[in-house]
Amino acid sequence: MENKIINLGIFGFGVVGQGLYEVLNRTKGINARIKKICIKDPNKSRPIDSSYFTTDKNEILEDPTIDVVVELINDTEAAFEIVSKALRNGKAVVSASKRMIAENLPALYQLQAENKVPFLYEASSCASIPIIRNLEEYYDNDLLNAVEGICNGSTNYILTKIFEENLSFATALQQAQDLGFAETDPTLDIEGYDPKFKIVILLLHAFGTFVKPEEVFNFGIHHLNDFDIQFAKQRNCTIKLIAQCRRQNGNVFAYVLPHLIKEHNLLYDVYNEYNGILLESAFTDKQFFVGKGAGGTATGSAVLSDISALLYNYRYEYKKIKQNNQPSFTNDVKLKVYLRYKTPDQVDLAEFFNISEKYESTEWRYVVGTINLQKLREAGWLKNKDVNILVLE
Ligand SMILES: NC(=O)c1ccc[n+]([C@@H]2O[C@H](COP(=O)([O-])OP(=O)(O)OC[C@H]3O[C@@H](n4cnc5c(N)ncnc54)[C@H](OP(=O)(O)O)[C@@H]3O)[C@@H](O)[C@H]2O)c1
Predict the structure, then answer these.
(1) Whose CB has fewer CB within 10 Å in the chain, the N or C terminal residue?
(2) Which GO terms describe its molecular function (predicted)?
(3) Is this model's pTM higher than 0.90 or not?
(4) Pocket lining: 73 vs ligand 1, CB cutoff 6 Å
């Protein structure tokens, strides 16, 4: 595609679609122009000329003059159908839809190989942080030990407002939604599904292992209460929703869980909609990436970077898959946690290997102890709103 102007067909003109439009207009020297934008609702008023818009997906997918399909919609099934068809029609595709990508990684990997077309999705994982391309290009050997961090801008915004400004959970969530940081369905953020989709994608690029989202345990910040916040503050800690994948004994495990974070931890100072990713590798110890993890133009800039990469024929090589020594996925790992509950019948403390601290008051109780991640996945008692869990460093 070198030296030619590429024609873009965009799906979706919401937060990210409009962010891309703005970034594209303000970036000089990018050889790309928008030919058509496919949206869902023909009656919505749009901030740009109506001649751009269509509701017929085939006006993009069947147009031979459109080189690149940019998929930025909020409907997982429709997104997979659009991306699959575009790849089959020989078009390069850029997408930001983490859920669609995480749920269909093996099929999308296969489609790229069969049709010999690139599919780039940097914006899907940490919006503006160029983490996938770094995992692919810079960390293309097998010395990585862990990818860990904050990769949900909306929950980080909520936690920042709770800890720094004493806002209530509901007010902070409303602000995150008003600013365009939250997913259309905010439970995807606050229950930790959105960061789970991202860690599934990062795990493939870090270690070459395909994992289904349902194999990865996620627990968000939806049960957090004032007692937990006080517990953290008394220990000079903050709370962050952490997604991680980590090698252990030749295997790799992954989860999304709220963590108690001490001041010395680089993730402590990641505020608002920012994301932060810590990489651990054999010889470099820790490396830290930080940047905006949500919002129209921040995400749009990552989408634009992918479009620009297509101009020099960039594609993911999935080198870790090809190295053929992928670690197996496991949930058999011990975690040190704080478990808060109201009455003893609400939890099963027999599941713990050991308990090092116990607290009881008329209102709340908690224990600190060690438990297996697999037990947490199976624990029906974590569904009770009176029960919360935090991983301790
Ligand atoms: N917001 C962020 O900060 C962010 C960051 C990273 C990744 N993402 C991902 O990017 C994607 C888009 O997010 P968003 O925040 O921009 O969503 P959004 O603001 O809710 O906008 C969604 C857009 O998709 C369009 N759409 C829905 N179904 C469609 C279909 N079948 N065909 C064509 N258009 C369709 C909607 O059309 P109408 O306008 O007609 O309703 C709307 O323009 C999602 O997958 C999200 O997870 C978002």
Answers:
(1) C
(2) homoserine dehydrogenase activity; NADP binding
(3) yes
(4) yes
CA 72–ligand 1 middle distance (angstroms): 5
Burial environment of residue 165 by CB neighbours within 10 A (0 to 12, 13 to 18, 19 or more): exposed
- How far is Cα 128 from Cα 274, in angstroms, rounded to an integer? 9
The answer to whether 293 and 151 have CB atoms below 8 angstroms apart is yes
| CATH architecture for residues 141-292+327-392 | 2-Layer Sandwich (3.30)
Residue 368 has pLDDT above 80, yes or no: yes
- Return the bridge partners of 82, or none: none
The Å distance, Cα 37 to ligand 1 centre, comes to 12
299 Cβ inside 6 Å of ligand 1: yes
* Fold match, 6-134+296-321 / 141-292+327-392: no
6-134+296-321: which CATH topology?
Rossmann fold (3.40.50)
Q: What is the pLDDT of residues 152-172, one digit of tens each?
A: 999 999 999 999 999 988 898
Which residues form the catalytic set?
198
Annotated domain spans of the chain? 6-134+296-321, 141-292+327-392
